[in-house]
Amino acid sequence: MRPTFLTRLVNGPLFDPMLYVRLLNRRSSLLFDCGRISGLVNREILSLESVFLSHLHMDHSMGLDQVFRVILHRGRPVHIYGPEGITDKVISRLSSYEWNLTRDYPLEVFIHEVGEHEIHTTPARAHESFKRSRTDSIAREGASIAYHPRYCVDAVVLDHNIACLGYVLREPFHINIRSEAVHDQDYKTGPWIGLLKEHILMGRMNEYVHVPTSGGMKEVLVSELVDELVIISPGQKIGYVTDIRYSQVNIDRITAIASSVDLLFIEAYYLSERESQAYEKAHLTARQAGMIARLLEAKKVIAMHISPRYHDRTEEIYRELDEL
Asked: Quick check: 37 and 66 in contact, CB under 8 A?
């Protein structure tokens, strides 16, 4: 089964944590944190639907300027999610530039400020020089903050001596097309398979799909194609956790959204020899990251955001991460 979410830790485990997620068979992607962004090419930046920031320290957010620079002429909006205070900071950085040449540009930036109980959304538009517009507020119901037919993003507010968001990206369910059944039904592969998946995700079971066969085009009901060709399996689930204190409150909140993740990206900033410093600075040791991963029953764990002091001791970091 090929995964729907194709992940890449852009700067590797040693530098600014930044997770790029490409959506399979779509020209769309998501970005979790946005520090040093030189590892992304313009094509990848242009495909971004949303950027999810854990917090606003420089190594997690300084790449936003480059994102705005690349997508400035784009017609499709971009969504920026982050903790309390993100709206003022993004508007401030946009307002530090002159925008007298953008009056015909269609770009819209939607800034979503995620609190424990509410989400405040503020649009900023190129043709209005990205000036602050109205803010709409909605009460949070559960952990989800972003919805799409192909995915959902959950978030919890964690403690890094400031508010810091932990994220889970999840697929509602995974659609598997049985290739042997396609052949048995005398169907030819093509773009109709993507359309079929789109209809299934949207719940449009009474729509028709034009399917090519050796005898020409055939109009088939989506529900019939599901019975003939489709296996539904549990969706993919990816966790992203960085820059947090090892505390029971943080652990409980992460567990609420990230249990049984398929893939966990988690900081392993210190070795346990600096556990007291880790607590003071609100970072995780590798051992603590491993304990959280085992508590979540994560199927695979990827360490990131390793402190520069350990760049020549990464084997020790990985050893602690895997300790029982």
From this structure: yes
- Residue 93: is its pLDDT beyond 70? yes
Tell me: the pLDDT tens digits for 259-303? 999 999 999 999 999 999 999 999 999 999 999 999 999 999 999
Residue 88, CA distances (Å) to 57, 71, 105, 126, 131 in order: 14, 21, 22, 17, 11
Q: How far apart are CA 274 and CA 278, in angstroms?
A: 6
Other Cβ atoms within 10 Å of 140 Cβ, number:
14
The residues that bridge with 163 in the sheet, in sequence order, are 159
> Could you give all domains of the chain from N- to C-terminal order, each with its CATH number?
5-172+235-321 (3.60.15.10), 174-233 (no CATH)
Using alpha carbons, list the distances in angstroms from residue 286 to 83, 274, 322. 25, 10, 9
Compute the chain's Rg from CA coordinates.
Answer: 22
- Rounded Cα gap, residues 195 and 9, in angstroms: 30
SS3 17: coil
